[in-house]
Inverse folding.
């Protein structure tokens, strides 16, 4: 009978490797524990021996032909073993974990909260976009006993995924940024998104934890009955309330605690573009205040935070000012970005809008809504990129349409854009950041 490595024995190897994990033979860390994961087009079992030769101390495989009981160990399923190891490790940690999900703004919220909490604590946050069934385990396994608090981002494109990630990470606190039209194909529509995202609330309810919630969001309030809440929003009845001021293209705001006026407080001037980011900033204030970060430290962290990873970044090129928001896009975030850009007092506004992916049967109607919104906006010059928008080329002759970013680059080589302010917004798969060098 085949004997598989137990989670407890796997944990001993993990500790022996000083909590170092490798999953890619192109990026091996010396002395690490290698997990031979499978993908649609690869099986890392084949590279387990190479991983050992490359400096890994041990390898975990689920192909009996590969294990040698010396440095390569057999489990029934490598991915499930990685997940169970992460769950086991989480149980050893005594500090609080904040779980974050939502249709828009997960990563922005995570980064802002991390910036604030780091003023007082040894805080850890999910790196990059490691927020799925592989990324969350890797995030958890990066935590050490030296950390004092962690923010774990959870992404999902179908129901049940958030519940599974909560089972692994067991968050003490929960935050759903919002419920919007993201991953409609996998969730089966907006009602499916509600069910999927609210799995975080269900976990917090069962574990007697607390949630941070935008008290002005009726959808979230409806989903959060019987939960202990820490509120943020516009009302002075909320734990943290604030007001945004449109003094520049960047978000500037004031905030204060429950029952106290906000108007004598200092104006926090941020580097965040887009008024839709105000509620994200206020959320970070709320969480920082709850965990006793001082008001000055909260304000300092938010004033000095610089957006990265193609999220609401302001880039000055030789010829133009570019607002780059091309990390992700769905109908909800696209509508907000267009509305915000339309209301800005920039001269010579141009929008470069890329396809929104993973919308399934909703794709045509949601892309059409975007085109119609732009027609009614104050943005007169629009360039659409992607096969979904290209379907409307013959219907909207006053706009330019391109199949992909490479076609747009070819156009920009012979049609230079100068002295303009551009919004670049689209799904990550459209790779719109590649056109920056041509602007």
């Amino acid at each position: 009978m085949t004997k598989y490595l137990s989670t407890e024995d796997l944990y001993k190897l993990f500790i022996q490797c000083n909590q170092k994990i490798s999953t890619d033979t192109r990026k091996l860390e010396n002395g690490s524990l290698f997990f031979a994961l499978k993908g649609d087009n690869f099986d890392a079992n084949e590279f387990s021996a190479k991983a050992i030769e490359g400096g890994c101390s041990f390898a975990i495989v689920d192909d009996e032909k590969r294990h040698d009981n010396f440095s390569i160990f057999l489990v029934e399923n490598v991915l499930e073993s990685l997940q169970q190891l992460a769950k086991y490790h989480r149980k050893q940690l005594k500090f609080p974990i904040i779980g974050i999900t939502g249709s828009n703004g997960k990563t922005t919220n995570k980064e802002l909260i991390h910036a604030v909490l780091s003023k007082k604590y040894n805080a850890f946050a999910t790196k990059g976009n490691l927020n799925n069934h592989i990324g969350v385990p890797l995030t958890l396994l990066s935590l050490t006993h030296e950390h004092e608090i962690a923010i774990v981002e959870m992404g999902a494109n179908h129901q049940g995924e958030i519940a599974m990630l909560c089972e692994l990470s067991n968050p003490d606190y929960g935050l759903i940024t919002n419920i919007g039209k993201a991953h409609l194909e996998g969730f089966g529509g907006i009602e499916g998104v509600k069910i999927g995202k609210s799995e975080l609330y269900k976990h917090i309810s069962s574990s007697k934890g607390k949630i941070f919630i935008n008290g002005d969001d009726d959808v979230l309030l409806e989903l959060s009955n019987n939960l202990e809440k820490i509120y943020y929003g516009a009302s002075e009845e909320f734990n943290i309330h604030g007001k945004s001021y449109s003094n520049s293209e960047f978000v500037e705001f004031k905030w204060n605690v429950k029952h106290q006026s906000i108007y004598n407080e200092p104006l926090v001037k941020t580097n965040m573009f887009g008024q839709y980011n105000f509620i994200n900033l206020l959320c970070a204030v709320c969480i920082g205040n709850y965990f006793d970060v001082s008001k000055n430290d909260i304000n300092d962290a938010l004033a000095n935070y610089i957006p990265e990873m193609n999220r609401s970044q302001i880039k000055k090129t030789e010829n133009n000012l570019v607002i780059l928001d091309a990390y992700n896009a769905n109908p909800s975030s696209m509508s907000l970005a267009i509305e915000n850009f339309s209301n800005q007092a920039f001269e010579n506004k141009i929008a470069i809008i890329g396809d929104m992916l993973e919308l399934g049967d909703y794709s045509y109607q949601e892309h059409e809504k975007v085109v119609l919104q732009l027609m009614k906006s104050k943005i007169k010059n629009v360039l659409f990129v992607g096969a979904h928008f290209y379907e409307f080329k013959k219907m909207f002759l006053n706009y330019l349409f391109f199949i992909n970013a490479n076609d747009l680059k070819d156009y920009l080589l012979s049609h230079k854009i100068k002295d303009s302010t551009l919004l670049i917004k689209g799904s990550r798969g459209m790779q719109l950041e590649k056109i920056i060098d041509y602007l």
About this structure: The chain has 16 helices and 19 strands.
